[in-house]
């Protein structure tokens, strides 16, 4: 019914950010997360914020979607801010609130940590907002490639990831179907005591597990029947290739890193 | 129980980018005790309509009335549980809903939820299993050890044990072999008469609709496209073909005999083979007179 159902947060689009090679995106975000901790001046934080906000803007993802991604962490951001505001006891006393002294350093620490948090979440959620789960899996497989040398099963890991992603919507549909069938047999998933509701899950989980196992077996058989034998010598349908825009991104990011260390105290 | 739909519309995820209108201004009524077939292509709104029959979905606008129960947008019906006891739904591939350790326990699950007492459940379980023609020895077996066909029968027994007054069937024979299909459909037909049920059959099969239903509703793109007794509906071959539905072979045979040979065959539920004999007799009869 929901053929257009989206897994995760991915918002389809055709912006520059969407079209950047997922490997480049992951690499840049990885290093961004690291350099966020090196900033220590107003200018350096300004540069990082500029980069993050500019990326978000050029992704053309509607603001409500971005905000939705940040929703679960708003609480954490605000909590961090308040914690530092009230607990840090360094610098000059700025003012008193209900008999509690607020220190200068507390305001600064609170603001800095909340900003860090915000930047990290914004940039990482931008990855999931503009990259399909399958692209992310492909990119991870490529990026972890070198680990094959130490016999780390990279291909198998990626395969497991993409199979799980592939079956999320299927299992969701299955869950809906079975819960409707059991609701028709008088199960009430919504009301009743906590114990009742836990018990109501059994008739849902058992069939779900049974069908998941059956599906897994069928899939394994189908793969074997078609001669699947792991990653060795296997070619790809979607070949990842670094393009001009990826190198531009690297260049911009490099400038950001340089700028950051210049403006750092 | 009488069932009626008045200007029912249903929209999935209204107001979101994924908004999808599944039903649009659907009105019809099903008198108590009738056997109605709902036919339509994938995406015609059949499943959505079906879920309105026991309150799994509540219309976005319009009213659904089932006996004394009324489902209306923005109106909370507190008696959903009672409604669900009266309306038994056999979903597509119902064997997927089995979960108990034994067949008996699974059949008892529905009635137990509706608070039927143990003695009565025992009686109903036996009745249900007899109706679906399963041997009683299976009652203590695990439903997961059974064959696919047997599992389907167990699941159907589980719905029958609720003693519903309305039976809603969503392609109950999908995936069964031809003899199994006929057996199951005949069983539903017998139950329908024996217990004076109101039966709603959702199907792709025009043959089943012709053989069992006394009223057909054809859905297309969420709207009622045609409605009437089977023999009337199947007179309109052109109109049916427009929505990619076929006329059953037998009816086609009768129509062709009339148009090409000028012979009127009286259709009263015969198979093609039987009709061919009738035809042969008429042709021969005609010669004898010459």
What's the short story on this structure?
Chain A is mainly α and 265 residues long. Helix content of chain A is 68%, strand content 3%.
Write structural notes for this entry.
The complex is a heterodimer of chains A (265) and B (290). Helix content of chain A is 68%, strand content 3%. Chain A has 265 residues and is mainly α. Chain A folds into two domains: 16-146 and 241-263, no CATH class; 164-225, no CATH class. Chain A has a two-stranded antiparallel ribbon. In chain A, a hairpin with a 2-residue loop joins strand 1 (93-97) and strand 2 (100-103). The longest helix of chain A has 32 residues, at 194-225. Chain B is α/β, with parallel strands linked by helices and 290 residues long. The A-B interface holds A 1-2, 4-5, 174, 177-178, 180-188, 202-203, 206-207, 210-211 and B 12-13, 18, 20, 22, 47-48, 51, 54, 56, 81, 84-85, 87-89, 91, 94, 96-99, 109-110, 112-114, 144, 158-159, 162.
Main features:
heterodimer, A: 265 residues, mainly alpha, two-stranded antiparallel ribbon, flat, B: 290 residues, 4-stranded antiparallel beta sheet, 40% helix
Structural class of chain A: mainly alpha
Sequence of secondary-structure elements of chain A: HHHHEEHHHHH
Q: How many individual domains of chain A?
A: 2
Indicate the mean pLDDT of chain A: 83
Number of strands of chain A: 2
């Amino acid at each position: 019914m929901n053929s257009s159902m989206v897994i995760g947060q991915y918002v389809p689009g055709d912006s520059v950010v969407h079209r950047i090679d997922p490997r480049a995106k992951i690499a840049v975000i990885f290093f961004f997360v690291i350099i966020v901790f090196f900033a220590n001046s107003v200018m350096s934080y300004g540069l990082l914020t500029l980069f993050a906000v500019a990326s978000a803007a050029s992704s053309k993802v509607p603001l409500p979607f971005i905000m939705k991604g940040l929703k679960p962490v708003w609480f954490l951001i605000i909590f961090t801010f308040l914690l530092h505001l009230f607990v840090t006891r360094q610098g000059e006393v700025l003012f008193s609130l209900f008999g509690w002294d607020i220190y200068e350093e507390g305001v600064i620490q609170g603001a800095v940590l909340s900003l860090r948090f915000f930047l990290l979440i914004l940039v990482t959620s931008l990855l999931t907002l503009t990259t399909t789960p399958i692209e992310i899996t492909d990119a991870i497989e490529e990026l972890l490639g070198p680990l094959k040398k130490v016999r780390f099963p990279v291909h198998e890991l990626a395969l497991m990831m993409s199979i799980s992603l592939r079956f999320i919507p299927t299992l969701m549909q299955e869950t809906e179907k079975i819960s409707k069938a059991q609701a028709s047999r008088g199960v009430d998933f919504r009301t009743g005591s906590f114990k009742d509701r836990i018990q109501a899950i059994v008739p849902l989980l058992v069939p779900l597990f049974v069908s998941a196992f059956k599906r897994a077996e069928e899939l394994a058989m189908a793969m074997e029947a078609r001669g699947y034998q792991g990653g060795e010598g296997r070619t790809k349908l979607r070949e990842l290739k670094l393009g001009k825009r990826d190198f531009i991104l690297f260049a911009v990011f490099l400038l950001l890193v340089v700028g950051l260390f210049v403006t750092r105290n | 129980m009488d069932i009626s739909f008045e200007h029912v519309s249903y929209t999935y995820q209204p107001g979101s980018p994924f908004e999808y209108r599944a039903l649009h201004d659907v009105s019809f009524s099903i008198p108590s005790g009738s056997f109605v077939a709902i036919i339509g292509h994938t995406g015609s709104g059949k499943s959505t309509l079906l879920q309105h029959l026991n309150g799994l979905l509540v219309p976005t606008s319009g009213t659904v009335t089932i006996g004394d129960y009324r489902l209306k947008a923005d109106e909370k019906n507190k008696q959903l549980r009672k409604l669900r006891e009266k309306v038994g739904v056999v979903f597509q591939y119902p064997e997927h809903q089995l979960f108990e350790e034994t067949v008996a326990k699974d059949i008892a699950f529905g009635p137990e939820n509706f608070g039927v007492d143990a003695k009565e459940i025992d009686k109903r379980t036996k009745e249900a299993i007899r109706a679906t023609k399963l041997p009683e020895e299976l009652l203590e077996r695990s439903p997961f050890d059974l064959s696919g066909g047997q599992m389907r029968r167990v699941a159907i027994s589980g719905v029958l044990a609720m003693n519903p007054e309305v039976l809603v069937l969503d392609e109950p024979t999908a995936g069964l072999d031809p003899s199994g299909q006929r057996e199951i459909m005949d069983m539903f037909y017998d139950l329908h008469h024996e217990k004076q049920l109101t039966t709603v059959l959702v199907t792709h099969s025009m043959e089943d609709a012709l053989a069992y239903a006394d009223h057909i509703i054809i859905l297309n793109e969420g709207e009622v496209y045609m409605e009437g007794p089977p023999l009337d509906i199947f007179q309109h071959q052109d109109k049916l073909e427009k929505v990619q539905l076929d006329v059953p072979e037998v009816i086609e045979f009768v129509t062709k005999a009339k148009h090409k040979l000028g012979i009127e065959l009286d259709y009263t539920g015969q198979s093609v083979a039987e009709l061919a004999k009738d035809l042969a007799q008429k042709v021969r009869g005609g010669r004898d007179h010459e």
